[in-house]
Every structure is written in C-alpha cells, then in structure tokens.
C-alpha cells in the first residue's frame, strides 16, 4: 500500500476530529525511510482568532517522553554494557538497598511487571521537596509481586530515569540532549518549561485553576511539575518532524550514527510478557485492536499524543493533538486513534 494513496483519508480523519471538538488541533505524519506525508488541522485553541496548527507546532507529548527519553537512554546504556536487563535496582540505585524495590530488575520496569504502586500520590505521600520525594519513591513498598502481572505505572519510567542519572552522573535532560537529541538532529525537542518565543507555536493543554489559564509550554503532568519539570514520566515538548527523525532511526538503526541499537529495537518490539495480559514489549506495546500478524507497536500520551511503528511494514505514524484542552475523557480520542492507525497501516 502506497502511503500517498491514503493521504486524503488521513487528512479527513484529523479534520473530523477538529470539527467534532475532539481536539482544537492536530499535527500528524505517516511514513517510511524513503517517503512520508504530513499535515496539520485546526488551531491552537477553538477561538477563531487563534493561530492555525502547523506541522512543526510543539506539543506536550506526555508519556511519549518515556520512549524518547528513558527507553532510548536505557538502550544506549545496555548497548555499552553499562546496564543489563537482569540488573537489580539494589545494584544500580544504592537508595533501594534493604527496601522492597531492591530485587526489582530493569526488565520488570520496562515490561511494567515490577509490582509498583499504580497511582502517583507523590505530594500526598512525600511532600514537595525533590530529595524527599525521591527517597520516598525508592523506599516505598510494592503493591504486587514482581513478574506476576502487567500493570502500567508512571513509577517505572521515574525510577529508570533515576538509574540513568546515577549511571551517567548527569541530569536526565542533559544526558538526553547529548546522547539522543543532538545526534538525531531533534533540535526542537526539549524538556519544559519553554521560554516564550514569538516564532514558536506551542499547543496549550488543560485549564489550570492555579495559573488561571490553559497550560502552554509547561508540562501538564503534575508529578513532573512537582519534580521540577524533568523526569522519566513526562515533560518533553516535541513536534512531528523531530518524532519522524526518531522513528526513522528505529526503522533503520544506525541511520544517524550509533544512537539506537538494532538488537535493542528488535527486543523492544517483541512480546516479552509471555501469557500475561496486556501484552508488552520493552515499554512499547501492541496497538489496540491488532494481533501479532499485524506487527504494529505503539505508545500513547495523556495529552492526546501517539506514535506507532511496524518494522515488518517499514512504516511509522505520529498523531499529536491537544485533546486535553477539552476533556480528560478518552472515549472519542481513542476511537479516532484507532481509525488513524488502521488507515496508516492499511489494516
């Protein structure tokens, strides 16, 4: 299936999302190594005078941060034998020694099988001081038995981010810039808060009572804001062109130098959780409504963002929206995501 054959249908789907008030605007792309199409629809806000959405508009990509930042850097460390999937947290994070997290492995964090607490509760449990929060997270009890169930939780990415910072001796945002973003040419991608620039469009998200306005250039995720805006959970702002570069690298590791390893990508896009459900690779998971024969993997973001990848088809897809501007209900955005994915991959 030629991607260009479905450009009109993809455009119509995204424009319908705007007209149906699923999101004020969106930017998207579908492509392969040698070819791609991209577009944008709607505006930054529903107001008639608002700026039109552009392909390079910056979005709060929410949990896509887990992939761009923590997943990629974990692979970078594994490739260099600085970290192993069977490494125990007690061996790479001294603050966990003697506590429930000590025997949890990197593999269990990446597959969401570590038995971690499911809800954030950071401020309620540990206050607002960064060191107190980190200490509390590393000493907290588990809610499940490691290896026995798949339960998605932000804690996994938060802890992996701390592992990365300790092993490389630098803040997560600096490490990401040096080892992933700069080599891939992802110049627009960075942790917030973003300094206002007259030439930069940033899609606003949810209305914040405290700020008295919709958040724009400040991460929506409260836990990330509590931790200073930089962590493994969320916090990155990016755009379609940068995410295309990242997904190109996943389809052809080594395209931009020694950034992502082919074995790491292959392992991550392979079922790693056996008979447990829902199925997981390493941070990636099969797209909803697909089977093994489809080979379409994805990760979603709470603000209305999504990335899909199919090595078998040699194709990727990105859909960035600011659906959170309207609502936290996911019924309609998930239906549209499904339609977009099926059209993008010919399912």
UniProtKB/TrEMBL annotation:
<dbReference type="InterPro" id="IPR012338">
    <property type="entry name" value="Beta-lactam/transpept-like"/>
</dbReference>
<dbReference type="GO" id="GO:0016787">
    <property type="term" value="F:hydrolase activity"/>
</dbReference>
<keyword id="KW-0378">Hydrolase</keyword>
<dbReference type="InterPro" id="IPR001466">
    <property type="entry name" value="Beta-lactam-related"/>
</dbReference>
<feature type="domain" description="Beta-lactamase-related">
    <location>
        <begin position="11"/>
        <end position="336"/>
    </location>
</feature>
<dbReference type="InterPro" id="IPR050789">
    <property type="entry name" value="Diverse_Enzym_Activities"/>
</dbReference>
<dbReference type="Pfam" id="PF00144">
    <property type="entry name" value="Beta-lactamase"/>
</dbReference>
<protein>
    <submittedName>
        <fullName>Serine hydrolase</fullName>
    </submittedName>
</protein>
